[in-house]
Design goal:
With about 270 residues, the protein is of the alpha/beta class. About 35% of the residues lie in helices and about 20% in strands. The protein has a six-stranded parallel sheet, sandwiched between helices. The N terminus is likely disordered.
């Protein structure tokens, strides 16, 4: 992996929870991201965009040490604080002990950024043209809960991460990388080239999701409300699978279906 670009050292690490607020705090061009998936991806691929990293003094595990090591190598200022301060900063306890203040004007993460940052088999949720911001927000929450590494969606003919989606996501928009692509089929092929098995959810599929091997890297692709997967998206998938339906309804909300698919992958990996 390429060595982070050299630059002048930033302020020395502060290890007191009562350290003064950094100059970047409150800047209109900054925002907070949190959780290891989001922060580690940014540290590996775009450390110049990070103003400072806030790390829980209570976390001394391998993941925490790796984050601090990456920050030190990239000369990112580290501020060690207690977990209560992190709770107050992001309004939730689900920060996993790491919060970064980043430049909101810098480029968004790319799919390759996330894939390069993984140290386990990938679990990706791909949304093909979801139009409802409430559904998108709910899908982000589901992805966070299942430990998905990213949510991928097309830039066109999709709702985008607007204020409603962010609110419904209840913080998951900051913990799960949301990646928009100009060509979804090309992005799926990029995943396949990286060794990820791409599975499309389709009610007419012959196999159920329980019959698909999901112990390796996998990307679940779910279609828009009502329309399902577009033809090119469907044709690009490695295989299709369905959620078995035992009642009278014929389909599920996309966020519900996403949860079923992602948690089945997690279930298989724990067997």
């Amino acid at each position: 992996m390429a060595k982070p670009p050299s630059r002048a050292p930033r302020a020395a690490r502060a290890d007191s929870a009562s350290a003064p607020a950094p100059a970047s705090e409150g800047r209109a061009d900054s925002k907070l991201i949190y959780g290891f998936h989001a922060v580690m991806a940014r540290l590996r691929r775009d450390p110049e965009a990070i103003f400072e990293l806030y790390a829980s003094a209570q976390r001394q595990d391998v993941r925490a040490r790796e984050a601090l090591k990456l920050a030190e190598a990239a000369q990112v200022r580290v501020i060690q604080v207690d977990s209560d301060r992190l709770d107050g900063m992001v309004g939730t306890r689900r920060h996993q002990g790491v919060v970064a203040r980043v430049d909101a004007r810098r480029r968004e993460l790319k799919l390759a950024d996330v894939l390069d940052s993984l140290d386990e088999n990938a679990l990706i949720l791909v949304l093909d043209g979801v139009q409802d911001p409430h559904n998108l927000g709910a899908c982000l929450r589901v992805a966070d809960a299942a430990g998905a590494h990213a949510v991928v969606a097309p830039k066109d003919r999709a709702v985008g991460l607007n204020a409603t989606a962010v609110k419904v996501a209840s913080g998951a928009a900051d913990t799960v990388p949301y990646i928009t692509v100009t060509n979804l089929a090309r992005a799926l092929r990029e995943m396949q080239e990286a060794g990820i098995w791409v599975v499309g959810a389709a009610g007419e599929a012959e196999k159920t999701l329980h019959q698909i091997d999901q112990k390796g890297p996998v990307a679940w692709v779910l279609g828009a409300e009502g329309d399902g997967l577009r033809r090119l998206t469907r044709d690009t998938c490695d295989e299709l699978a369905k959620i078995p339906m035992y009642g009278s309804v014929e389909s599920l909300n996309v966020s519900v279906a996403s949860g079923i698919c992602l948690f089945e992958a997690r279930r298989q990996r724990e067997i």
